[in-house]
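1st attempt posting a full record on here, be nice pls
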Amino acid sequence: MSVSPPAIIDRLTIRRQFLHVAQGRKAAGRFVLLQVRSSADVKAETKGLIRYGLTASKKVGNAVTRNRARRRLRAAMLQLLPLHGRPGFDYVAVARTATVTAEWPALLDDLTTLFLRLSAKSAPLYVTTATATS
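the predicted structure (as tokens):
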């Protein structure tokens, strides 16, 4: 059994990348809104990357609150992307007001649920070919 090398995790930094992901699939949880879209149609060199972005609008709170929400989301995404992220896909986590006050295990559980919900709507994570035995 061969093990694939770990995917490289990178950040989304340009507004058009966020807008591209916003046109993809979305799943809303209690603490986070997660958006995902394939990055294969953007550039060929992003095929093996898992890219992620974070956003918190002014609805979340003042600058201190928004920064705290982004820090929490960054830590959660870096913990969960190697487990649930798919290479060649871009993810954007949108903070909600409850992101800042949520218990850490509940926030991780919410994000895990969103990752699983979005992966169930898309193609399977691992494509296996069935061998015919006769």
